[in-house]
Amino acid sequence: MAELLRIYDENPAPKHINKVVETLRKGGLIIYPTDTIYGLGCDITNVAALEKIAQIKNVKLEKSNFSFVCEDLSNLSDYVKQIDSATFKILKRCLPGPYTFILPGGNSLPNVFKKKKTVGIRVPDNNICRAIVNGLGNPIVSTSIKDDDEVLEYSTDPELIREKWDHLVDIVIDGGYGDNIPSTVIDLTTHEPEVIREGKGSIDIM
């Protein structure tokens, strides 16, 4: 059964963050708040946990389009190829924020993602998930829990999220009611930024 763990965004309690980090290190799955929709996540370095998420989402892991949730832009070079200054300025301007940026995958991606030519990078404006990534020391692989065919509350109310995901994950973090608008997805792998999906993040910032 999943544990419902209350954590406050303004000041995440270190003991609760540590508990989540330890769960991730052991291959556990978590549902956690972001600045958009609640996410389903695991440690990017744990292949067994990655396989579990792929199975839940009914996709092949090597063909999945999961996002990498980072604390900031400092460890970007671990996962993406060298980017030019114009691209970096866009990232700096928009992050942390409700955006997913598609960038060219780097050579040091985890083995399971080695064949990916692009990766989606997120730095949410949410202290809880950034504190978790900080404690873990590497990104979380993440995917949205939203299902367009479902009642809205099952992806926004932590107690109902736990009810639905009880036997699939180890911890559901209650960080308050979630949003129901996804991140704005922008492809930065070509000469001009291309908006793939307009979501919560304003495209005027481009």
From TrEMBL:
This protein's name: tRNA threonylcarbamoyl adenosine modification protein, Sua5/YciO/YrdC/YwlC family
Organism taxonomic ancestry: Bacteria, Pseudomonadati, Bacteroidota, Flavobacteriia, Flavobacteriales
InterPro entries for this protein: DHBP_synth_RibB-like_a/b_dom, Sua5-like_dom, SUA5_domain
Source organism of the structure: Christiangramia echinicola
Domain (YrdC-like) ranges: 14-201
One of the record's GO molecular function terms: double-stranded RNA binding
